[in-house]
């Protein structure tokens, strides 16, 4: 049998939680959250491009200055840069702001690839040292893998025959409703 906690202890814990959360929210520092995502795009020529985008959010209460992004964990023997840069920098990231960066790579070697998180460095006006944040990691990428074509329902068939199917369905439903006796008529026949 569970022993109930005294109400006083619960109220003290809630008050402590309130004071800790208010103290943390009152601190005037940027809080950087970065989301990294990568998608594979198979070209008709057989090559495969990796589109990488990194979104950097400032969830803190002050501005981050001298924000720099570096994502150099893509080996040159496995990937060629098709467009964009693996690093970039911005002057500032305001509180509640968003910065985005994207680049595209071409895979040269077949196999699984595990990428490390991108590194974001920024400066806080109250501290001399640069602060560092990491992005989220991406799922493993299976570069140039043999993929079995999926049987997707072809939307062109719906576009071509959709109106015909809906008209036939409405006519069949109407005929069914007219030809079947209603439940009220059945109930009145049972009472007689």
UniProtKB/TrEMBL annotation:
Lineage, top-rank taxon, reads Eukaryota
Q: Does the keyword Signal apply?
A: yes
Coiled-coil stretches:
none
Is Cell membrane tagged as a keyword? no
Signal peptide coordinates = 1-25
What cellular component terms from Gene Ontology apply here? endoplasmic reticulum
Residue spans crossing the bilayer:
158-179
Keywords associated with the record: Membrane, Signal, Transmembrane, Transmembrane helix
Pfam families, alphabetically? TRAP_beta
This chain belongs to which protein, by name? Translocon-associated protein subunit beta
Source organism of the structure: Linum trigynum
Q: What is the lineage of its organism?
A: Eukaryota, Viridiplantae, Streptophyta, Embryophyta, Tracheophyta
């Amino acid at each position: 049998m569970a022993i109930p906690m005294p109400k006083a202890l619960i109220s003290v814990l809630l008050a402590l939680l309130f004071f800790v959360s208010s103290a943390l929210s009152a601190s005037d520092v940027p809080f950087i959250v970065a989301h990294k995502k990568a998608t594979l795009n198979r070209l008709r020529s057989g090559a495969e491009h990796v589109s990488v985008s990194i979104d950097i959010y400032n969830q803190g209460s002050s501005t981050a200055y001298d924000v720099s992004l570096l994502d150099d964990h893509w080996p040159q023997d496995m990937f060629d840069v098709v467009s964009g840069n693996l690093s970039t920098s911005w002057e500032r990231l305001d509180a509640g702001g968003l910065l985005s960066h994207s680049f595209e790579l071409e895979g040269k070697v077949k196999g699984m690839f595990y990428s490390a998180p991108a590194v974001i460095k920024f400066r806080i006006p109250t501290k001399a040292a640069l602060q560092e944040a990491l992005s989220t990691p991406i799922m493993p990428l299976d570069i140039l893998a043999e993929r079995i074509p999926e049987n997707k329902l072809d939307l062109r068939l719906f576009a071509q025959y959709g109106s015909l199917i809906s008209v036939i369905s409405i006519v069949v439903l109407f005929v069914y409703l007219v030809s079947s006796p209603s439940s009220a008529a059945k109930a009145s026949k049972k009472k007689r």
